[in-house]
Amino acid sequence: MFNDHTRQSYRNELEEIERSGLFKKERVISSPQSAHIEVNGKRVLNFCANNYLGLANDETLRNAAKHALDEYGLGLASVRFICGTQTVHKELEAKIASFFKTEDTILYASCFDANGGLFETLLKEKDAIVSDSLNHASIIDGIRLCKAARFVYEHNNMEDLQAKLVAARNGGAQRILISTDGVFSMDGDVAKLQEIVALAEQHGAMVHVDDCHGSGFFGPTGRGSVEHCGLLGNVDLITSTLGKALGGSVGGFTTGHKELITLLRQRSRPYLFSNSLPPSLVVASIACLNLIDSRPQLLQRIRDNTKIFREEMTEAGFQIRPGIHPIVPIMLGDAALASRFADDLLEEGIYVIGFSFPVVPKGQARIRVQLSAAHSEEDVRFAISAFRKVGQRLGACRS
Ligand SMILES: *Cc1c(COP(=O)(O)O)cnc(C)c1O
């Protein structure tokens, strides 16, 4: 029963979240997702979306979705295996497999679900998972659901990965799966996939890459961190999302060896017990994958934007994490400074978010900028000048 005492206990918990400065307020947007958005009646430039290719409001994709809405309806009112598989679901699965040069693909309602249903299905008590310490929450939760032995290696530390692989083998593990984000969302750093795959071969392990921050735009033809590292078709499992570069709506998938995907279809709980994706979104996603190959200028635009932003911000004396990914963390250190910086930037028409503990380590507060192909060069330069202006005022950069 929800009585006064219960209510008070929840109020206390909420107050504790506020007191520790962790209460998340949602800014309400009254426009479609794009480079320019409307927040609180004000037009601002958005630099914090995962809309890497700027396709979240693309006309071609919207039209594809509209036609599919009329042709295939709103949704299936069924899970996939009862009466929830349409021709378009099979088409998208085949399209994703050919895009990533894999054997088969299974769709989920989200990548959170893809990761949630991955480990428990593929690994048993006698198996082991070796996971990067900074992996996404959905990998951590997915691993929690699984009975296999767990080993966590220090972020991107290949010596520690090797040590954990040895420990897993010595512990008698039968099958071993190494799991890593392809690109880590708080630092924009890329997993050392070449070394990971080499170690996996050496120790007889499989490799899973969650490429949510890579799929569609990173690497020479947008196949993600796996392609960036020269390993297209050479990792065992990729999980990813349709909610970031690939159209920005919702949905996820696992793609890889046929036997693994077939087993997931039989046993993966978020697949078996959750509704199938709406056809409008499925058709838009097929169109999206085609569009990436037909509009290579999108990939060039985001690369150019990233290069300009990284170079000029470094030039201005900001401390940024080096790299080449469009996630660019501007390191500020102090949590209050990061939050003030983001507020002041909004006044200047730039929408970004400050991240502090516990999302990132204490003393490493930062503003995370995400470049997009939706930004023009002018947009990027406007953001740089706003950063300089606020940075000088707050003493966070040289010039
Ligand atoms: C965004 C993200 C997810 C979750 O994807 P959804 O499709 O939004 O559930 C999972 N893993 C990583 C690394 C992500 O960045």
What does this protein look like?
- The protein is an alpha/beta fold and 399 residues long.
- It folds into two domains: 21-57 and 296-394, Aspartate Aminotransferase, domain 1; 76-277, Aspartate Aminotransferase, domain 2 (3-Layer(aba) Sandwich).
- Helix content is 43%, strand content 16%.
- The chain has 16 helices and 13 strands.
- The chain has helices at residues 4-19, 59-72, 80-83, 87-99, 111-116, 119-122, 137-144, 158-170, 193-203, 225-228, 258-267, 269-272, 279-294, 296-315, 335-347, 377-393; strands at 36-39, 42-46, 104-108, 128-132, 149-153, 176-181, 206-210, 237-241, 252-256, 327-333, 350-351, 353-355, 365-370.
- The strands form three sheets. The protein has a seven-stranded mixed β-sheet with strand order 3-9-8-7-6-4-5, with helices on both faces.
- A hairpin with a 2-residue loop joins strand 1 and strand 2 (42-46).
- Helix 2 (59-72) runs antiparallel to helix 13 (279-294), helix 4 runs parallel beside helix 13 (279-294) and helix 8 runs parallel beside helix 9.
- The longest helix has 20 residues, at 296-315.
- The radius of gyration is 22 Å and the shape is globular.
- 49% of the residues are buried.
- The model has no long low-confidence stretch (mean pLDDT 97).
- The site of pyridoxal-5'-phosphate has 13 residues, from helix 5.
